[in-house]
Design a protein that fits this description.
- By secondary structure, the chain is an alpha/beta fold.
- It has one domain: 3-Layer(bba) Sandwich (D-tyrosyl-trna(Tyr) Deacylase, Chain: A), CATH 3.50.80.
- Helix content is 24%, strand content 37%.
- It contains three helices and eight strands.
- The strands form two sheets. Strands 1, 2, 3, 6, 7 and 8 form a six-stranded mixed sheet that branches.
- A hairpin with a 5-residue loop joins strand 4 and strand 5 (62-64).
- Helix 1 (39-51) crosses helix 3.
Length: 150
């Protein structure tokens, strides 16, 4: 499982020109699910996202998490995070989970993150063509991969 986590001042998702979700200060999470993911991957990414210290404390240091500040979260499914372009210019998505599996894990992730944060999170529309707007605050963008050991 991969998550591109962006600290935002605000973010929103539109489908067919209609706003379906909107948040203020918090994190926009673009979530990719691989064909090899398990519930352990869900829990790993949820813990990392909820406790990621990317918000500034009173000293101006990135020391506070989404949980600490009570910030918002917007989760958008993005299978293209598993696009592989090592052998050409057209991405291969063979490592992405099939739609039915990906949707199940996407919903589990959203439920687990909501539980971890103790608040409702906002979502995109799984499988829809979405317009995602954000004001990246910093900018701060972090990649979290449940399979990659750094």
């Amino acid at each position: 499982m991969r998550a591109v986590v962006q600290r935002v001042k605000e973010a929103k998702v539109l489908v067919d020109g209609n706003e379906v979700s909107k948040i203020g200060l918090g994190l926009l999470i673009l979530l990719g699910i691989s064909k090899d993911d398990t519930e352990q991957d869900v829990l790993y990414i949820v813990k990392r996202v909820a406790n990621l210290r990317v918000f500034e404390d009173t000293s101006g240091k990135m020391n506070l998490s989404l949980k600490d500040i009570g910030g918002d979260a917007l989760v958008v499914s993005q299978f293209t995070l598993y696009g592989d372009v090592r052998w050409g210019n057209r991405p291969s998505f063979e490592d992405s989970a099939p739609k039915s599996v990906a949707e199940k894990f996407y919903l589990k992730f959203c439920e687990a993150l909501s539980s971890e944060l103790g608040k409702e999170i906002k979502k995109g529309v799984f499988g829809a063509m979405m317009d995602v707007y954000l004001v990246n605050y910093g900018p701060v963008t972090i990649l979290i991969d449940s399979k990659r050991i750094f």
